[in-house]
Amino acid sequence: MAITNGTSSSSKYLDPSTALEHLATYESRDGLSVSELLNSKTHGGLTYNDFLLLPGKIDFPASVVQTETRITRNVTLKTPFVSSAMDTVTEKDMAIHMALLGGIGVIHHNQPAVDQAAMVRAVKRHENGFITDPVVFSPDHKVRDVLDTKVRLGFCGIPITDTGKLGGKLVGIVTSRDVQFRDPEDSVSEAMTKDNLVTAPSGTTLLEANELLRTSKKGKLLIVDPNGCLVSLLARSDLLKNQNFPFASKSPESKQLYAAAAIGTRPADRERLALLVEAGLDIVNVDSSQGNSSYQIEMIQWIKKTFPNLEVIAGNVVTREQAASLIAAGADGLRVGMGSGSICITQEVMAVGRPQATAVHSVAEFANKFGVPVMADGGIGNVGHIVKALALGAGSVMMGGLLAGTTEAPGEYFWHDGKRVKTYRGMGSLEAMEQGKIKPTTSKGGSKNALHPTGSKPTNVVENAATSRYFSEASAVKVAQGVSGDVTDRGSIVHFLPYLHVGVQHSLQDIGVKSIKDLHDGVRAGEVRFEMRTASAQVEGGVHGLNSYTKRLFSSN
Fold it and tell me: FRET partner for 417 with CA separation of 20 to 30 A, picked from 46, 66, 295, 348?
């Protein structure tokens, strides 16, 4: 075969060194802009699986990607992760660990108000700077009081003052070692440590106090005024948490973990909120399946008037019109989603809702004009869905089913079809709606009409967050908008959330952006591009062509 020097054939092609210059001659960048992608008139409503983001240029390591984001007007977190306000997802343990790992957990309200307030209080007391409202006992307290505090709040290093209150004369401290092997009826005065207390004068800076605590090798540093009266304290355990959890979501002022909780829109929820605020609540989520109601608008307005420093996340919404009502009422953040969760059947049963990707983009595009961040709630099944939600304008993602199988979620593991699982149910499921239900009694002469029964109203009304969320308290027939099932064991959130975080970092690296802010800016400028996926493309993008395979999501050293 003859070999040529390629001179004649090379004349058919452009000079490779001009490739970038020639690229600039195209009228538009490859792929679609977000407005072209999310044009409902052209494509209808889209879900996360209906599109992909196109890759950008990598000139930085994934480790430098910043995931800091706002979840309300005034609260910024190190990661965009939020655990859902569901009774099979977020209680005390989940809320604490979500905050330690840089996210936040919204404590559900399908429980008595005092129990919910106790969970908020436990989150706030878990990590502190200077503890300015510590538990304080008097010498007359009993050892059993110390043991009870350890069970309820998880600690028993308690300062003792002559009055049993902050501001009293410091006379000692009682620790776990002091009460070991003690009779529960012994008085604290017999058990407490009185000598060699580690103290510092009021006015000591946090940096100075931390150093004193390090060198003292004690568990607590007691801060006293010139008269020897207790004004605050610092805990060694918090130093360790600062070291082990550098992303922890904490109030800049108090250095305590952020606490968030949900309430409904009924009159009793105002009393509930007062208890939560007293316990230290930072963020309240006004929880409703359809947020654009007079009940929620009035509740938001009342909250902003009564508790002006409390951040309010409102919702749920899926349209600009819904969002506008809640923003005008004073909402600091919005939850977006209606019928997109894995356990939600609202779209199927009620014929109302919106595909999640379209909903997130539509609401975020509008809300961002007013500085109100959007939380994408529902439809999050993997790291890719998280990044897609962020790309469409969300500041954070609320996750239910993805976290329900973790150790920190409420409930016990059990075995089902050979798999270790936990129960997971929608708040619109009959199981959730019937929690705490008193069996109704029918008055004499009550109608037996199955469609419109009368006389079947319960003699005692039991508050239930699930029925109030779906406006079903007064309905004799409860119509389910969710299901109950189970999800597989995902291990501890301590390992699972870092996996999600690193996954987001690598995804943003592939897109060519160094932060969530850069992602939002790039999408708005049309520099971050998208592509629609056909059904065949979705098959191609998943595992295919194998006889069998094992899908391991992550490994940790």
Answer: 348
